[in-house]
């Protein structure tokens, strides 16, 4: 892996450098969009940097390597993870859920034999292309996986040497015994909480009866206190935006190792009703990030906001990024896929409520063939360069114009722009401002760049 340069200039055969204003007092960014190379230059030096000199020479030397890296990341990955939906059912009715209500009420659920059979088939597939020393990842994902607790726990025990496991749960069924089982086996655990104030948290995450569940999440957080392998997702909606800064204070106070402040994916109509205005979302998001930084300075303890850390890493070392929504094509159907309880395979869980996006079935088809199916190709072939507006955007490889499911359902087609353009632009401006000010390491996991190399670094001028 190679870290990208702090400064660079264009190679003669590449796109011209684009000037990207980051709202910084002294610096602007110059970006070579096709390869996601960037540089920060003093405003008074922009003309010289565009004309040539040391930066241009440095980029000329390394440009082909960076282009190859980007090509590998975008077009030559093979899946190494699966989102395993052992059940379609859920005991909650959250406002923004991407799984249709009828499915969550009466959908299919796997038994133990089916989970074990599915894991065996998946293991056979991953072993075909992954090295022995790298375990593929299985994330038991929602609806609510712990409704099928017996089956998935049997799967974890039977396959613990063959997969790395994770569980994304709404916490309502995560009792002491479940926490003991999962933490003893090193299983990653994701929880969800939308606000530190019970009344606000319960507006978006609630049971079918309307009763909120934040008390369960708080109990689970206490049980997990000290476990490094857990995180909490907060979905940003118009309901909780005013509480976002308080939310990160709450996470920090409760020693949450990492959190995500996610935009609302608007694939289903219910989500569009609670989705916040994106300028407001961006403002609240940056304020919350600034608060995490203050808390770090005050206490020496970081609260990493993982989805923002991923944007920073995408800028600093694109191939080291961990989340795959912000790259085009996105990770759906190429770095991972999703399994539904009946065996149907989808490019991503986000498509599970859209039956025509099933590319085949685990029990009837070869996974390699499913990856080449028409529904998968629609997603894996969605290139940001083919989207009007995005084709000329300087930061198109820090954003990726997500999400294809959302674009299809909300904007009328995959060729349409993603839902959070302004949010991505502001995130990228902020990330580059942090780099210009030398503060970016404070927002990243310690050791995030282990294994990454800096192949060209001239330093911020
Ligand atoms: S952008 Fe959408 S479809 Fe792609 S990985 Fe993210 S959630 Fe899934
Ligand atoms: S959605 Fe907006 S920020 Fe993202 S690539 Fe397209 S134009 Fe750029």
What is the topology?
Elements (H helix, E strand, L loop, with lengths): L1 E2 L14 E3 L6 E6 L4 E6 L3 H6 L2 H22 L5 E4 L16 H6 L5 H16 L9 E4 L8 H10 L5 E5 L7 H9 L3 E5 L5 H7 L9 H11 L5 E7 L7 H10 L4 E6 L5 H6 L3 H22 L4 E2 H11 L19 E4 L4 E3 L13 E2 L5 H5 L2 H7 L15 H4 L4 H7 L10 H16 L16 E2 L7
Parallel strand pairs: 1-15, 5-6, 5-12, 6-7, 7-8, 8-9, 9-10, 10-11
Antiparallel strand pairs: 2-3, 3-4, 12-13, 13-14
Helix pairs in contact: 4-5, 9-11, 11-17, 12-17
Bound molecules: iron/sulfur cluster (SF4) (2 copies).
One iron/sulfur cluster binds next to helix 15 and helix 17.
Describe this structure as you would to a colleague.
It is a single chain. The protein starts with a strand and ends in a 7-residue tail after the last strand. 38% of the residues lie in helices and 13% in strands. The chain has a ten-stranded mixed sheet. A three-stranded antiparallel sheet has the order 2-3-4. Bound molecules: iron/sulfur cluster (2 copies). The site of one iron/sulfur cluster (SF4) has 11 residues, from helix 16.
């Amino acid at each position: 892996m190679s870290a990208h340069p702090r400064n660079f200039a264009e190679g003669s055969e590449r796109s011209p450098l684009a000037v990207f204003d980051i709202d910084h007092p002294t610096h602007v960014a110059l970006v070579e969009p096709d390869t996601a190379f960037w540089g920060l230059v003093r405003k008074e030096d922009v003309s010289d940097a565009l004309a040539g000199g040391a930066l241009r020479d440095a980029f000329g030397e390394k440009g082909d390597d960076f282009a190859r890296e980007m090509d590998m990341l975008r077009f030559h990955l093979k899946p190494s993870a699966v989102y395993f939906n052992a059940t379609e059912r859920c005991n909650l009715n959250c406002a923004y859920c991407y799984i249709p209500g009828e499915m969550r009420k009466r959908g299919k659920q796997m038994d133990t034999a089916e989970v074990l059979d599915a894991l065996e088939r998946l293991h056979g597939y991953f072993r075909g292309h992954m090295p022995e020393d790298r375990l593929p990842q299985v994330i038991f994902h929602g609806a609510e996986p712990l409704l099928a607790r017996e089956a998935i726990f049997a799967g974890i025990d039977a396959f613990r040497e063959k997969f790395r496991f994770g569980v994304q749960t709404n916490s309502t069924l995560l009792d002491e015994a479940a926490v003991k089982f999962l933490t003893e086996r090193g299983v990653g655990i994701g929880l969800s909480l939308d606000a530190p104030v019970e009344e606000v948290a319960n507006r978006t995450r609630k049971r079918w009866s309307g009763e909120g569940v934040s008390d369960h999440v708080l109990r689970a957080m206490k049980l997990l206190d000290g476990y490094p392998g857990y995180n909490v997702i907060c979905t940003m909606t118009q309901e909780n935006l005013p509480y976002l800064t308080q939310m990160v204070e709450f996470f920090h106070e409760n020693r949450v190792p990492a959190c995500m402040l996610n935009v609302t994916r608007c694939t289903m109509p219910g989500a569009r009703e609670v989705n916040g205005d994106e300028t407001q979302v961006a403002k609240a998001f940056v304020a919350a990030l600034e608060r995490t930084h203050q808390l770090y300075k005050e206490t020496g303890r970081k609260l990493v906001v993982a989805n923002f850390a991923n944007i920073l890493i995408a800028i600093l070392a694109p191939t080291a990024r961990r989340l795959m929504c912000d790259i085009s094509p996105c990770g759906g159907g190429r770095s991972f896929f999703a399994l539904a309880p009946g065996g149907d395979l989808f490019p991503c869980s986000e498509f599970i409520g859209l039956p025509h996006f099933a590319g085949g079935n685990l029990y009837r088809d070869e996974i390699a063939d499913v990856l080449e199916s028409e529904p998968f190709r629609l997603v894996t072939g969605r290139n940001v360069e083919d989207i009007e507006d995005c084709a000329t955007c300087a930061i198109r490889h820090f954003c990726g114009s997500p999400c294809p499911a959302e674009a299809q359902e909300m904007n009328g087609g995959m060729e349409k722009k993603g839902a959070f353009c302004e949010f991505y632009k502001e995130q990228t401006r902020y990330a580059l401002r942090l780099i210009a000010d030398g503060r970016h390491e404070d927002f990243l996991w310690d050791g995030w760049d282990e294994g990454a190399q800096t192949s060209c670094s001239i330093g911020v001028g």
